[in-house]
Every structure is written in C-alpha cells, then in structure tokens.
C-alpha cells in the first residue's frame, strides 16, 4: 500500500524543516545538504524523498548531482491552516494590552 504524503507530514520533522530552510536560502545538491547533518546520506535521502513526494522540493539531476530547489507554493496550505490561530492570538494579546493599559491608569 502506497503512503500518501502531505505538507504537514513533511514539516512535522525538525530535520525536514531545516532542509526546507536551507534549500529556500539557495538550491543545493544532496551532498551539500547531507554534509550539514550528523546522520547518514541514506537518512537524508529519505527526508529529501518525503519532501519531494509532498511537493515541497523539486529534485532534478544536473550532471552527476541531484539538485534540490524549494517549491514554496505547498506552504500556502500550512499558512492557511495557521491563520485562524494567529488571528485568535493577536486578538487575545490585544485584549491583554488593553487590560494592562487600564491597570496603569
């Protein structure tokens, strides 16, 4: 049975979040990504595979290397899910600010 991967599964892991940040800063090959971690190249390849399967990374061969580039469009799904919570906390902090102002009077 094939597992369906989604963006939430991808960002659930701190290593994958780090890889997303690295590749967002600049496209990188698999070796340069793997060098930044104290884990096997195979483990990094699995993380890259998950990021690729959920659509966050594009992996393209260039000569003998495989280069990863960010596909940020999929992060919109996360941003849309987080937005109501951000608004809720903004409202709560505004209310707290108002209470604190009243206490100073």
TrEMBL record:
It comes from Dinghuibacter silviterrae. GO terms for molecular function: DNA binding; DNA-binding transcription factor activity. NCBIfam families: HTH_metalloreg. Residues 1-90 form the HTH arsR-type domain. This is DNA-binding transcriptional ArsR family regulator. Keywords: DNA-binding, Transcription, Transcription regulation. It holds the Pfam family HTH_5. InterPro entries: ArsR-like_HTH (IPR011991), HTH_ArsR_DNA-bd_dom (IPR001845), HTH_MetalResp_TranReg (IPR051081), WH-like_DNA-bd_sf (IPR036388), WH_DNA-bd_sf (IPR036390). SMART domains: HTH_ARSR (SM00418).
């Amino acid at each position: 049975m094939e597992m369906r991967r989604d963006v939430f599964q991808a960002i659930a892991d701190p290593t994958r979040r780090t890889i997303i940040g690295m590749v967002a800063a600049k496209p990188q090959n698999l070796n340069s990504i793997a060098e930044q971690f104290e884990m096997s190249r195979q483990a990094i390849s699995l993380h890259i595979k998950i990021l690729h399967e959920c659509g966050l990374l594009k992996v393209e061969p260039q000569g003998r290397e495989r280069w990863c580039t960010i596909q940020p469009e999929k992060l919109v799904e996360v941003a849309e899910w987080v937005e109501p919570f951000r608004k809720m906390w903004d409202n709560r902090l505004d209310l707290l600010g108002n209470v604190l102002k009243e206490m100073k009077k």
